[in-house]
Each structure stands twice: as structure tokens, then as C-alpha cells.
């Protein structure tokens, strides 16, 4: 949600003011405003008006505003009151004397505010600003607060996803061969709402499991498959967290030399084992168009998680990483007549389901410096 500049429609992001060259990258400091009795609201400091938010990322944004000339020469600092949208109380106190305002020196605008310790991706925030003049005794005179505006931080960028990718590669382990993709489910036959009269399993919107900033959550349409095998048998696990029935299909029908593979996410759920989400999208498909530019494209024959290689006899061979649990999203409909449905022979371990699972924000293995 972006505050429109004067004369712009509500859906248009603000354009930075013309004087951006002086301090376009001036970072906001992470100081905390004093809450002493010497702080006084005065009328001779200009009140920020027409707050404009632009250049929003998952853990930063650029802010600017208009001010009258009267009292501008007194300004030494800006106080920025940043709150998650659900917290509508301005200047929320963690303790009685500690407000959550951020302090920035009065640099030319626009000013970049960044910091993963207080900004998270895909999160709605409210922000308001006041100008301040630091007095010799260390206290401040402050203007009244500006209007409150709201905005939403962005998804992880390719830069952030590549950082996640590098972390995932460190723990992927050696590669094991496999031959089928499978999905465990409650129904022996596919649910009527999930296939067409031509018996195709249809893509569904991905849930919110995994990293909060992942650009595929709630947006990418696909069908979840697994491919991990048991180390001692080379076969899919006997147990299931998603139901007693298993639909499986030959690996080459979903993953071949015409399929692009993308890295989507790396996360854990307060456990010692980690999940990697990969996206398989036939080249030129709608899913491929969605992923290109949003997700890191992997080498299908030489990545650390899931490979497809052409052998000398023209056949394809497949391997998956041993030490991570792969969640594979195939972006296009799947003809169910190409596979088969069997009953899972082991236990139904529903507690292991990753549906809408929340990522452990404290894990040092699978988190990056950007907002969680």
C-alpha cells in the first residue's frame, strides 16, 4: 500500500523528489528517541506533510515529505514512528520509558530506512514522522506528528533468494538416485474439485509455508510432489504426513530436458531437518513465465538438490539430495492416467505436515540477514 503523491492515482507509487541526488542512500540510524521530561512539542518546527513512500523492498523503504520553510533551519533530527499495521497505537512502549521511534539525522530527502531487526517482508506497516531540534542539554523540541500512512514491504528479491540458495547448498548432502515423483493424499481417487473431466490434476495456489518473504507463497499455482527416498531401500518412504494414499508418476514425465528448475525456498520448522522447495516448470509455460526473474534458475543437470541427466543410451537419470527434504512444485496440470494410486503401508504422521508451516526465525542455518 503506497501513499499517493499529490496528483497521482492511489495505485501509483510515489516519485522521489528532485533533490534525491544528495542523500538517496542516506540510511536511517536505529537510535531510540529520548523519553525524558525535557521533550516538548513546539509550534515553530515544521510538521511533515504529504508523506511519500517509495523504493520498497523486503527490509527497506525510501521516505520523503514536504515541509514549510518556517523553522526548517532549527531541525537537527527526524523521528520516525514505525509500527506493524495491526498495532495502531502510535509510540508503543515496550517498557514505560522506551518508545519505538527511530531516530535519523536531518539529512536531505528522500531518506532510505533499512534494517532487518525491525522490518519484515510481506508485512503491512504504518509510519508517521515528526521533526526535532536537539537542545544543548540533550533533550529535544519536537513538532506535532504528521499524518499516518501505510505501506506493505515486498517479497524476497533474487538477491535474497540467492543468499538462501547458498545456505541450502551447504547442507544438501550427497545425491541419491530416484525414479518417481509422488504425492500423498487423503483420497484414493483424486477429489472432484481438483481434476478436470479429462482427468487432469490441477495446480492450486501455494500455501504460506516456509519463509515469510518467499515470492511463491500465495501466488504460484502448482501441484506438490515429493521425491525423497529411504536410504536403505531406494524407495519412497512407507510413512506419510498427508494421508494413506499415494499418487506416483515416472520422474521423466515431469522432469526432462524441456523442464526448467527453480529454487523457491529453504526453511525449517523448529527441527533439525530442513526443507528445500523447488519449482519444475515446462519451458515456455505460464509457470515458467512466473518464475523467470523471480526465482534463481538452476542447472537441471548440475545443481545440489534435484538433477536430470541424459545418459549415453538416450535415457534420463535422476538424483535427489540426501540431507534435505525436497518439496517439488510442478506448475502445470498432470494427467492422472499417466500415474498410479497405491496405499501407503506405514503410519500417517500428520504432525509432520508442512501445510502453512511457519519458519523458525532463529535458525542460523536457514535464515538470512534480510527480514524473516
From TrEMBL:
Residue ranges constituting the Fibronectin type-III domain according to the UniProt record: 47-156
GO cellular component: a single term: cytoplasm
Family named by the database record: Belongs to the PHYHIP family.
Official protein name in the record: Phytanoyl-CoA 2-hydroxylase interacting protein-like a
Stretch forming the signal peptide: none
